Structure formats: C-alpha cells, structure tokens
C-alpha cells in the first residue's frame, strides 16, 4: 500500500489559517502521511484571482514552512490554463500509482461536484473528503451522492460512503474558523489589520509586495 496523501487545492488568494487548520485536522482524522497544497493557475469555477500565480504560490510556501506534514505543488501553475481536477489527479496517479489520494473540498464546493468536468471519473481516482465550513449548505450527503453522482454509493465503515470499486466520500468535521480570502483582501484594501487571520510570514509578504491594495501588484 502506498502513502496516503491529501490534496488541498484552491486559489489561495491568499492562503489563511482556516485552510491550514482544517487540513491539519483532516490529516489527523484520516491518518494521512502528507497534505499537499496546490494553488491553481486559473480556476474554472471562480471569478478571477487578484494576486498572480507566482505570488499565490510563494504565500503558500511561506505558510507551510516549519510544518513537515505539509508540502506544496506547483503542478497546476506550471501547467497553466484552467485547472481541471481530472488532469491533476491523473498526473499524480501516473507519477505514483501506489499513492492513495484524498481530495479535500469544503461543503460549499462539494455539493456542486456534479457540475465539474467528468465527476464520475474523479470518484474512480481519489477518495473525497468533505470539510464543514461556516455558512455552508447542510444537505444530506448520501442523498446527494446517490441522486447526483452514482446510485451505487452506500454507507461503509467509519462514516464513509463508498462505491463498489472501493473509492468513497467522507464528511469530516473541522474547527469552523470563519475566515475568508475575500474578507482578507477587503481588509487589506481598506488599511485594516489581517493579523491572526493569516500566518505572520504571509502577512509580511502581502505588506512587502503591496498585494490587494490599489497600488499593489496583481
């Protein structure tokens, strides 16, 4: 059996403490060997990002310093264009077919998985972990899986819902830190503090690069 690796993707515009804390708790709950943070180049399902890919990647690198259980991948940024999860998971499995992948999504994202590119194929490539977030929809997970993705989903061990092939989906409760990248950007733009919302190294980088201000670099 290969290593158990969590994949936490996103724009990270900027990365903040809620991203880090939730990932830490999921890694502990599922006994993962590592969590890889993967900033996307151009998200197909979100409005445009404000900071450049290079700035967002550097902020993620600064955020995970000193945490050996966390790693950073520039795979989607180097590939460029719209970041499709199908391509990303396929690349990671080609790289190491023995690696067991766990793809992290918040409630607010997961319940739109049926609108993604080839969602059923994604469920053959990785286990999906649904993380609770403040103000996210409280839909019935099994009902959603069976109705929108595959009627073959069924309850399994330890809170998992699995397909006959073995891959599954599990909801993991995490500490609900009501922090958003949008709010952080608004705070910076209006000259307010973002201390204790992002790691200190990320705050220092945002200030030094003048990110998220009218005079800042995109």
From TrEMBL:
Catalytic activity of the protein: nicotinate beta-D-ribonucleotide + ATP + H(+) = deamido-NAD(+) + diphosphate
The EC number(s) this enzyme carries: 2.7.7.18
Classification via InterPro entries: Cyt_trans-like (IPR004821), NadD/NMNAT (IPR005248), Rossmann-like_a/b/a_fold (IPR014729)
Record keywords: ATP-binding, NAD, Nucleotide-binding, Nucleotidyltransferase, Pyridine nucleotide biosynthesis, Transferase
A Pfam family that the UniProt record links to this protein: CTP_transf_like
Gene Ontology biological process terms, A to Z: NAD+ biosynthetic process
Domain Cytidyltransferase-like intervals: 7-187
Alphabetical list of PANTHER family matching this protein: NICOTINATE-NUCLEOTIDE ADENYLYLTRANSFERASE-RELATED, PHOSPHOPANTETHEINE ADENYLYLTRANSFERASE
Protein family per UniProt: Belongs to the NadD family.
Function: Catalyzes the reversible adenylation of nicotinate mononucleotide (NaMN) to nicotinic acid adenine dinucleotide (NaAD).
Alphabetized HAMAP family for the sequence: NaMN_adenylyltr (MF_00244)
Name of the protein in question: Probable nicotinate-nucleotide adenylyltransferase
Gene it is expressed from: nadD
């Amino acid at each position: 059996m290969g290593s158990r690796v969590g994949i936490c993707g996103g724009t990270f515009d900027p990365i903040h403490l809620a991203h880090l804390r939730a990932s830490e708790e999921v890694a502990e709950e599922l006994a993962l060997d590592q969590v890889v943070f993967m900033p996307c180049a151009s998200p197909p399902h979100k409005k445009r990002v404000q900071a450049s890919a290079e700035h967002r990647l550097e902020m993620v690198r600064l955020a995970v310093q000193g945490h050996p259980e966390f790693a950073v991948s520039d795979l989607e940024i180097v590939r460029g264009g719209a970041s499709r999860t199908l391509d990303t998971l396929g690349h990671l499995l080609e790289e190491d077919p023995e690696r067991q992948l766990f793809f992290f999504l918040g409630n607010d994202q997961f319940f739109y998985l049926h609108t993604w590119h080839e969602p059923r194929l994604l469920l053959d490539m990785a286990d999906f972990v649904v993380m609770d977030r403040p103000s996210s929809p409280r839909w019935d997970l099994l009902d959603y899986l069976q109705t929108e993705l595959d009627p073959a989903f069924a309850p399994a061990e330890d809170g998992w819902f699995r397909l006959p092939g073995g891959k599954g989906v599990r909801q993991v409760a995490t500490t609900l830190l009501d922090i958003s990248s949008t709010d952080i950007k608004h705070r910076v733009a209006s000259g307010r503090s973002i201390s204790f919302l992002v790691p200190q190294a990320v705050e220092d980088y945002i200030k030094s690069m003048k990110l998220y201000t009218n005079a800042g670099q995109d």
